[in-house]
Amino acid sequence: MTNPITLVLNHPHPLAQNLSSAQTVAKAADEAIRHAFLLQIAYWVSGPFPDATELIVSVGDTSGELALTAIRDATGGYLWTNDGGVCDCPSDYRTADDACLDQVIDEINLELDSVIEGVDPRIAWDKVDDILYRVQLPTSADIDRLERGEPLTADVVLAVIARELEALARLRVVLGQRRPALDTGRADRGEGAAVLLRDMSAALDEPERSTVEQPRLRLEIVVDRNPDSGTEVAAFINGTRFTADVTVVDPGAQRQTLRAWRELCGSAVYSASPAAADQIRAFFDSYVGSEFVS
User: Fold this and answer.
1) CA distances from 149 to 140, 152, 201 (A)
2) Can you give the pLDDT at residue 225?
3) Which among 22, 36, 252, 256 could bridge 261 via Cys, Cβ 3.0 to 4.6 Å?
4) What residues contact residue 243 under an 8 Å CB cut-off, 6+ apart?
5) Which residues, 6 or more positions from 205, have their beta carbon under 8 angstroms from its beta carbon?
6) Residues 171/14, Cβ–Cβ less than 8 Å
7) What does the alpha-carbon distance between residue 187 and residue 181 come to, in Å, rounded to a whole number?
8) Backbone phi, then psi, for 9, in 5-degree steps?
9) Distance CA 133, CA 58 (A)
């Protein structure tokens, strides 16, 4: 005897929703970790350069190797450059644990890989030129709050809450779809499971209600379509920059066979969330049979 299964698990399927929920939580956790590493870098920079607000980082064309090339203030003025041309810091600078400036810079270079782990820096950071990218540092107020044991800024917290609530809502759908039937032989077990589901649903409702009372999240998308190079995209939630997973459907870039177009679509939806995957497929499908895809 066999069980009826579906090889392709689309969004309505509980298993697909369960996987999407887990991926949502994992992405939120990854972003929180990267932000924590960036806070450490901002803390180290604030010692020798209290006015620093951004880093300029080089990204190797082929190797992707990262290297700190400059530190700048809010006006764009240079406080330090790696060629030794500028250094707005006393030559005898020492940290509280007796590290010199060169050691601080070395530590920052090591931590940069952790800040961008799993993300293409060419997408996450603002482009300055072919190999240089701008990295906005968290504010000194953020660092001060953390040192006092206070939570992060409201914008960051609200963004993380929004992602976690999406996962919780999906979990509730999955649990509801798996509610056991109250058949004759299992009435007690079924009633107990039903009670558990109602309790979990009520618990999930409570944080959703409290979050509704918070200020609305504002999502901003900035797109730079450079005719001489690629498209750069920056995403902000309440003014705080977040990494965006960008998918571009551009049939005009090059004529495609139907098979190649389907393969591009499959690659695009592979790591996308179910909702985004549905939209990506719809965009790809809209060009099938056009002058660009045949």
Assistant:
1) 14, 9, 32
2) 75
3) 256
4) 31, 34, 119, 123, 124, 235
5) none
6) no
7) 8
8) -95, 100
9) 6
Could you tell me where the beta strands, DSSP code E, fall in 181-277?
A: 219-225, 231-237, 240-242
Helix and strand element counts for the chain (H, E): 8, 8
Report the chain's terminal Cα–Cα distance, integer Å: 44
Q: What tokens does 190 get?
A: 């079924």
Rounded to 10 degrees, the C-alpha dihedral 80/85/86/89 comes to: 90
What is the rounded (10 degree) CA torsion for 281, 286, 290, 291?
-70
* Residue corresponding to tokens 């604030």: 46
pLDDT band at 175 (very low <50, low <70, confident <90, very high): low
Burial of 240 (0-12, 13-18, 19+ CB in 10 A): middle
Quote the CA–CA distance of 251 and 249 in Å, as a whole number.
6
pLDDT at 12: 64
- Spatial strand order in the sheet of 66-73: 78-81, 66-73, 52-59, 132-136, 126-127
Sheet arrangement for strand 231-237: 219-225, 231-237, 240-242
Please give the Cα distance from 221 to 241 (Å, whole number): 10
Mean pLDDT across 23-44: 81
Burial of 211 (C-beta count, 10 Å sphere; 0-12/13-18/19+):
middle
* Distance of alpha carbon 148 from alpha carbon 141, whole angstroms: 11
In degrees, rounded to 5, the angle at the alpha carbon of residue 259 between the alpha carbons of residues 255 and 260 is: 50
